[in-house]
Amino acid sequence: MTPDSELPDWPGQRLGLPENGPRSVARIGRRLAAIAIDWGIAVLIAVAFFDYDPLATLAVFVGMQILFTVVVNASVGHLLLGMRVVPMAGGLLGVWRPVVRAALIALVLPAVFWNVDQRGLHDRAAGTILLRR
């Protein structure tokens, strides 16, 4: 890749990440499946404890995203599908990155606009990237 106007051959190439396998950027299919798993779990919890209140479902979803991402660098869906959230700068995620990331995912729109490296606005704001394990 020479000129800036050329698109990379795969997501993460310009970041020095492999095309596929471990440490490659997680693709959209895995991401959608993971969020469906996470939302399904949030719905089940909301049905069981909150009589399926939509706001309670969203609160459970956001809470799960924050808790699991802080503790194990991945949501339940991410874990099941072999992905993890890592900070772009290296080091630990801390607490603020998962909080920002989850809040923006809850708004939906930041998660659907991504760049050539498939980093959504939520990941760019939090300084993270979703990689395969």
Automatic annotation (TrEMBL):
Record InterPro entries: Pra-immunoreactive (IPR051791), UCP021697 (IPR016795)
Keyword list, A-Z: Membrane, Transmembrane, Transmembrane helix
Membrane-spanning segments: 32-50, 56-81, 93-114
Record-given protein name: RDD family protein
Source organism of this protein record: Microcella pacifica
